[in-house]
Specification:
Elements lengths: L14 E11 L3 H12 L4 E4 L16 E2 L3 E2 L2 E2 L3 H12 L3 E2 L10 H7 L20 E3 L1 H15 L2 E3 L3 E8 L2 E9 L2 E12 L5 H6 L3 E3 L4 E2 L2 E4 L3 H10 L1 H15 L8 E2 L6 E3 L12 H25 L7 E5 L4 E2 L3 E3 L7 H5 L2 E2 L3 E4 L4 E3 L11 E3 L8 H5 L4 H21 L8 H10 L13 E2 L5
Parallel strand pairs: 1-2, 1-11, 2-8, 11-23, 20-24
Antiparallel strand pairs: 3-7, 4-5, 6-7, 9-10, 10-11, 12-19, 13-18, 14-16, 14-17, 15-16, 21-22
Helix pairs in contact: 1-4, 1-11, 6-7, 7-8, 11-12
The structure holds flavin-adenine dinucleotide.
Flavin-adenine dinucleotide binds next to α1, β3, β9, β18 and α11.
Amino acid sequence: MTDNDLIQESPGAARVVSRSDVLVVGGGPSGLSAALAARRMGASVTLVERYPYLGGLASGGMVLVLDDMHNGDEVTVTGACMEMIERMAKLDLCMYPPVEERGASEALYRKWARWGAFDFRSQMKPPPIVMAAAFDPDGWKRVANEMIAEAGVNLRLHSWFSKAVVQDGRIRGVICETKEGRQALMAETVIDTTGDLDVAAAAGAAFSDGSYIVTTVFRLGGVDTEEAERFERESPEEWAKLDRAAKRLMGGSWDKWWLKTPLPGVVWCNCPHMIGLDGIKVADQTKADFEGRKRIYALLDYARASMPGFRNCFVVDVAPQLGVRQTRLLQGEYVVTKDDVMDRVHFQDTVARGRDYYTPYRSMLPKEVEGLVVAGRHYSATEAAQKMSREIPPCMSMGHAAGVAAALSAQSGTPLRHIDPAQICKHVRAQGGDPGDRPSANATFLEKAA
Ligand SMILES: Cc1cc2nc3c(=O)[nH]c(=O)nc-3n(C[C@H](O)[C@H](O)[C@H](O)COP(=O)(O)OP(=O)(O)OC[C@H]3O[C@@H](n4cnc5c(N)ncnc54)[C@H](O)[C@@H]3O)c2cc1C
């Protein structure tokens, strides 16, 4: 079979199952934040998700540390992200260092490093402990459900977006594949939070093909984390040898390949790293599952046999969702560059932020389609810039701005690209978010960014 081997399908019809002011496609971190923000603006909101739970990579992909949300001592991402953290913490399903335990010292590092709460970009030794939160994936699903229900969002799980309904250059709704057949969901404004730009790409927006490491994230249970940490501390050279061997078996991982989770004896393994795979190609997705599991089971055998603290460990689960970091990237009204992120460029139309960098509203707007705004890891950025600005908190910050913008547009009839960024910031602030409109002291101002 070749790419030219095609059959023609009949167009068919789809039952309209929802009409709302704002339609959010994709129930990951940015979609959750967008739906809540739009609903809290008083808009009617429908949220569509292909899987039977909310969370996207955060829960289904088991990406279990919320980071990139601090600028030194300053916590830069608030809004729905902090609400999730606080609500999960109340259930003992989220851990983060309290203010008085953030800073640089051996003792603090020893206490918090294996929770992933250290500044991984710092050159200091040891790196400072900063605001970051380790959470439980089911905790995310539970709290997200509660928040969506409390807000009165019309949630439709098990609904797989397949087609954009576009008329005269404007998106009017989407088609989803479901067990009941094809369904149409119509709206005044649509927010694409699929992570892979499914909606915008289908609607005719320009994009580039990004790619990055792919990971089958997993958790190990039955780990004696105290014993493992003691061994690392007391026998650093022997530990380093075993750790290197473990990483070799996985064919690549970050420095700390296991981190603690709120569940005793259960550790989060953000590995193995697999390269050269396209996160939206079925053959590559399938290959990633086979290759990832092979490496996980090789590591399991090795850890049981050789690593103190891991003698009785077992695989709790491999994340149901493949860990895809980057695929299609919007080529929108502005394309954020690596220099913008590195130099902390503050834009006149900043509406969201991450650690110490800022997101212009233009990077969430496709050039070619009206009525559509995007938020999350597929926003308009170069590949290099996205790698540095795609963590969960900044995606939620973008979602917040998109939700507000979509509601303002639907309610006023003003096209999305004419919504005033200052108005978006005002409403994001009123909802407890930080849209980045008040730049931190280390921001850069460039004429070209205006
Ligand atoms: C292995 C790995 C490790 C990472 N480590 C960290 C980390 O330590 N800390 C951190 O903060 N970030 C980390 N990240 C980045 C972070 O997880 C993502 O960038 C973030 O989750 C993106 O959020 P999103 O809402 O844009 O997209 P996603 O989380 O991908 O959510 C997209 C949602 O849309 C749904 N969807 C997609 N297509 C369709 C469709 N056609 N129809 C209906 N629904 C659809 C998906 O099911 C999903 O729920 C990591 C990512 C990976 C893959």
